[in-house]
Task: structure prediction
Amino acid sequence: MVKHVLRVIVLIYLLFLLILPVALIGWRTFGDGPGPFIDALTTHSALHAFQVTLVVAGWAVVLNTVFGVVAALLLARHEFPGKRLLNALIDLPLAVSPVVVGLALILVYGTFSPVGGWFEGRGIQIIFSTPGMVLATVFVCLPLVVRSIVPVLEELGDEQEQAARTLGAGGWQTFRRVTLPSIRAALGYGIVLSLARALGEYGAVAVVSGRTVDETQTLTLFVEERFENFDVQASYSAALALAVLAVAGLLATKLLRPRDGS
Amino acid sequence: MAIEIRGVNKSFGDAAVLRDVSVDVTSGSLTALLGPSGGGKSTLLRVIAGLERPDSGQVVISGRDATRLPPQRRDVGFVFQHYAAFKHMTVFENVAFGLRIRKRPKDEIKKRVGELLDLVHLDQFAERYPAQLSGGQRQRMALARALAVDPEVLLLDEPFGALDAQVRKELRAWLRRLHDEVHVTTVFVTHDQEEAIEVADTIVLLADGVVQQQGAPAEIYDNPASPFVMRFLGPVTEIDGRLIRPHDVEIRTEPGEGTSPAVITRVVRLGFEVRVEFTVRGAEGEQAAWAQLTRETVERIAIEEGAEVHVRPRPAIKHSIQIA
Result:
């Protein structure tokens, strides 16, 4: 009896929080058939926003994956001074509002700061451009890969890696043949979480991008801008497209099950 | 010499784990590093493998100074207590690992792995994953994996420590036979003196980070260098300030040269062996001791609880230590 009541409560909770809003977006989008959906997403601005989002999210995920794996190995396998500090810093992006992150990045990399000015002098514009958006996205995704892998690495222990070393494998071979396959599922999960977060990031990117239509407008910025301009069809269509991308990513992790016959 | 360890010191923080340890391991021998837990024996094994770096001292493997070499260049096989099986690889892939790292041709790998799986009786299990094997099978797989690359020395860290008593006994005997077949210089760590005496041809006894004694099992058993070594290698009892083995106690009904009067307190029959506990009335008061006798002796001299007897160390024995 209690079980049934709990189940109903959870379902109702999810219904109002998740299922209903997403379903309504879908219904609104396809209310007049697929034609308006396709039209809304094939305008020049929409296609450009897609492209910007994929470039920014792509770079952010790649950088975050590399940094995440290195940082996780450092935290799980090595003792060094400042380890606790690093551990705490990695969680910082979860605590700081993305808007603050955006403003802070402008302070460091803006045209009138020393660092930003130095880059600018070499023809590299960071703020109001792709590098700044990538930086902002990397920052907000920072903990996702690290926190997915560290518990798995700690659980795994380092005996398998030591065994690989005694069998003649060097550091890179040990990582590629032993460590990486063991953390594959967790790493995949971390990457997908990063991807979902990167696709959906709004606040930090809104601040550093300058929100120039057809220039630095990502899909989330596009959704908001269309909504403000009463183009509800385009706004909902793009929102649905974002949701579909994220869900597809999550489903992909299901294919990354560990292979150990258990 | 296959392995020469010269004056090795190692500390973890403030705790000195190895103190000026020097050990020689002869080529082709089967050596046991024996000692109580925390005595430094696993650390010494890991120093030989290169998994720990000594603070000072030298490790020479097959005439080559290996002190600064990383583990992958030492040509050692290492078997871990908890197997360290590669969980995402099949048994075949586990054993083939070292050969694949060395980029050997496919045919050669297949042949060599096949031979090794035969040797460890796992030929039926080549396509299984470690999770589908028993503890004993996983340990045999780990052994095959270590042997696959023809190491100069084979190092085993408490190889049977995680197995139940029955499997442990079987693998012990099997390891001895395997060594007689393969002849690779082998060093294994154990805290079980029976295991060391049964399997090894040389024992190095380590305690508190110091080599207490090294030599053949019989030699250490018969000529222990200290009361500690004598106690560690087998049961002991104390009579008249002398530490002796309980099977070297003589119990008589009449007094004789060097005997002390005693009263039997308990007789425990354990099949062939009989454990006789008694109180010795020595010069310094009463003291509890015990003797290990055969059933036949007990019946011959009619030992029973409460009987007044005379005890002494058997006159011919070599191994007793004066401690008081």
